[in-house]
Amino acid sequence: MEVLWFISYCAFLLCLMGRTCAVSHSISPSQSISDGESLVSEGGTFELGFFSPGSSTHRYLGIWYKNVPVRTVVWVANRKTPIKDRTGAFTINSTGNIVVTSRTSGVIWSTNSYKTTKASALQLLDSGNLILRDEKGIYMWQSFDYPSDTLLPGMKLGWDLRTRLNRQLSSWRNSDDPSPGELSNGIELHEFPEAVVWKGSKKYFRGGPWNGERFSGAPDLRVNPVYDYSFISNKDEVYYTYQLKNKSVFSRLILNDTTSSRQRYVWAEASRAWKLYSSVPYDHCDAYGLCGANAICITTNSPMCQCLEGFKPKSPDNWNSMDWSEGCILSKKFSCESKEVFVKFSELKLPDTTKSWVSGTMNLQECREACLKNCSCMAYSNLDIRGQGSGCALWFHDLIDIKQVPNGGQELYIRIEASKQAGRHVVNAVLISLITGAVVFGLVLFCYYLSRRKSKVKGIVLGQDNSTSEGPKEDMELPFFDLETIVNATDNFSFNNKLGEGGFGPVYKGTLVDGREIAVKRLSKSSGQGLNEFKNEVKLIAKLQHRNLVKLVGSCIDGEEKTLIYEYMANGSLDSFVFDQTRREQLGWSKFFQIISGIARGLLYLHQDSRLRIIHRDLKASNVLLDGELNPKISDFGLARTIQGDQCGDNTERVVGTFGYMAPEYALYGLFSVKSDVFSFGLLLLEVVSGKRNRCFRNSHDHHGLIGYAWRMWTEGTPLKLVDFSFEDMSEILRCIHVSLLCVQQNPDDRPNMLSVVLMLNGESTLAQPKEPDFLRDVIPSEITFIRSDYDSCTANEITFSSFGAR
C-alpha cells in the first residue's frame, strides 16, 4: 500500500514540475484536466494537453502526435486567446460544453453545442478527433468539424449543407503563433463546387473542379501507395477527404503561411523526420488568374501566358510588357446565329467554375447544343471523365484561370467564330502541301548525294584540302571520315584500344596517319541512339567552341556503322577520379574545385553564351572528360536539345537520360529546361565532394540516396560528414555543399541559374538557405523502359534510359 502511495505521490510531483501526465483517453463531466496533465488516445497515437508553440511562453490547448519525437500539433482550441500562465484547465460544464479556463482570466474558450442531451464523456480517438458524446454514444461536438491548419485522415474539408457547417483549414500565423494566418482552404459552393486556397480575401490557388477521378488541375492526385481520396457532392454534403492505406503510416495535409503553400507530409521513421510528399502551388501558372481572362498559362512557354484561339490581348501594350492581368477579349464578337464552332483543348485545368452550370444527365453532344443556344456560353466539357465520359458542364462569359497540365488535366471545348476555324483549316492544308513538297524534294537531293558519295575516293584525312577534289561534301558542318580510316586508326576497334563504354556504345583510342590521337565513339547497333541523335550530336557540338566543351573533329556513317571522332582526352572521364579513392587522393581538393568550376563555366556557355541555347539533359561524371592537364570538358551531346533564346524550356513525350541524375519534373513529366541541367550539376557536385555515387549510395539512417543523406547532415549541422577527411579547405567545400543543395531543389524556380552558380562557387554572391529537396526521385516511374538490363550495377558504366509513355 505504501508503494502505491509513493508512486502516486511521485507522479503528482512530476505534474507539478510541468511534465505532462497522461490521465486516460476520456474524462466525465465530474473531471477536469489541468496544465501538465493530458488525455492520450486509447491506441496511443494522439495526445491532448496544454503546450507552448516554438519559442512562445503562451499556453494553448491542443492535440499532437504522441509517438512522434518532434512535437507536431494538429489542432488548437484557443487559437486566438492564449493563456499567459500555467493555470489553464478544461472540463465539461453543466450545459454540456467543453470549457477552457485559467485562474487569472476566467473562461478562455468553449464549444457551442446547442443539443439538449446531457454530455456523458469527452474522449480523444485514435484518429485525432476529440469528441463530446452523450450517454447513447451520439456525437454532440467534434474537433474534426472545426479544423485548424491540418487535415488528418478521415476529416472532411467542406460543407454539411444540412446544418450549413463549413469546415475550412486556416494556417498558423507562424511557428510561434497558432492564431489564423493569411491562408485558408475550403470548398467554394456554387453550381460546380471546387476546392480553393485563399490568401486573405483573394483566391490564391485553385485545383480545378472534380472530374470523377481527381481535381482537373491536380495531376499529382493519383492512385498512390500512401492514401486513398474522394470528393463527395450531393444535396446533403460537399467535401474532400482521404484515408491512409496503411494505418501505421502518418500523413497530414497542412497550410503553411511561411511558404504560402498547402503541403502534404509523410513521417519517415528511418530518418525520424517529416518528409514533404507534395506541395501546391506547384509553379507560376498555379497563381490564380495569372493570365487574366480567356488566356491559357503554359509553364514551359515563354511568355507563359497566351490568348486562347479566337481571342486577342485586351491591352496589347500591357500584354507585351508581361502584364497579363487584363487578359484577352474576343477578336470578333459572336453573332449568335449558330455560326460558331468549338475548338477542343486537351490537358487543361478547367476554368473557374463560379459562372458555370452543370447537368449530370446530358451527354457531350447535348452539352454542345445547349452551349450553342446561349450567346453567353463560352465553353463546355464532361462533368465526369470516367469511362466514356458523362454529364455536362457549361461556362458563361469570361474563362478565368486556365492552365495546361501535362500528363493530366481534362478536355475543354471552347467556342470561337466559325470563320476562324475555317481559316485555320485552309492554312493547315497549305502548310501540309508545302511540307510534303519540301520533304519529297529533300529526299530526291539526299538520294542524289548518296549516289555521288559512293563514287568518290575514300580516305579523307582531317585537314586535307578538298577545294579541288571531288570528295564528299562536309555535311553537318564537319569532315566525314570513311570507315576504313577509322578501322585502321583503332586497329579494327581492338579491345586493347578500348577506353570505356557508355549507354550508347564503346569508345576507342585511335591514331590518324598524321600521328594525331583521337577518341572514336562507336554507336552500338542495339543502343537507343539512332540516326537522329547521332546527327543531333554532330550538328550541335560542331557549332560549340569553348575550352570546357569537348571538341568533335569528324564523323563517319557507313550503313549501320555510325562513329563520332573526338579530340583524345588523355585522362579519361571524371568518374574514374571521383569514385576511385586512390586517384581521388592523388588529385586533391584544389584540382577538384578547378574541375567543378570548369564544368560550371561550360554549362553557363551552353545555357547563355553560345550561338545556340542548349540543354544538355545528360550531365554526369562519365560525360565529363579530362585532358592531359586535367581541364574538364563536357561531352556526349546526343540527348541535348536547343531552345529559342527567349525560351525557358520545353517538354517531350520521350524522356531520355541517366536515371539518378534527372530533375524530378523531367523524369516524371517530361518537362526540361536549363534548370534541369542545374539539378544534374548539383548532384554531380555532391558526388565530387563525397566520392559517392548517388544511385549506389545507401546509409543505415537514410534510404533516399546521396541527396537525402546530404540534407540530413545539413539540417543536423554536420554537412562536412559528407567529405573525405583528406581534403583540406573545408570552408570552400562547405560552400560547394551549400550550392549543391540549392541546385537540387524540387521546384525548378528555386534553383539558381548557372551564372549564379558560377558566382556562388567563387564566393562572389550570397547564398540563400536551401529548402528540403525532393526525396522521391529514386522511385522509378512504372512507364520507364531501360535500354540496358544491368541497372543494378554500380560500376563505372552509367545506364541511360528512355520512357515512351504518353504524356
Brief descriptors of the model:
807 residues, alpha+beta, Agglutinin, subunit A, 5-stranded mixed sheet, 14 helices, 21% helix, disordered N terminus, disordered C terminus
Report the top-level CATH class of the largest domain.
Mainly Alpha
Number of helices: 14
The CATH superfamily of the largest domain is: Transferase(Phosphotransferase) domain 1
**Number of self-contained structural domains:** 5
Q: Could you give the order of strands across the largest sheet? A: 27-26-34-30-35-32-33-31
Report low-confidence residues grouped into runs of 5 or more: 1-19, 422-434, 451-475, 776-793, 795-807
Mean pLDDT: 81
Structural class by sheet pairing and helices: alpha+beta
Report the sheet with the most strands, covering strand number, pairing sense and barrel closure: 8 strands, mixed
Number of strands: 49
Q: C-alpha Rg, in Å?
A: 32 Å
Helix fraction bin:
10-25%
* CATH architecture type of the largest domain: Orthogonal Bundle
Distance between the termini: 73 Å
CATH names the topology of the largest domain as Transferase(Phosphotransferase), domain 1
CA-based shape: globular
Proportion of residues in extended strands: 25-35%
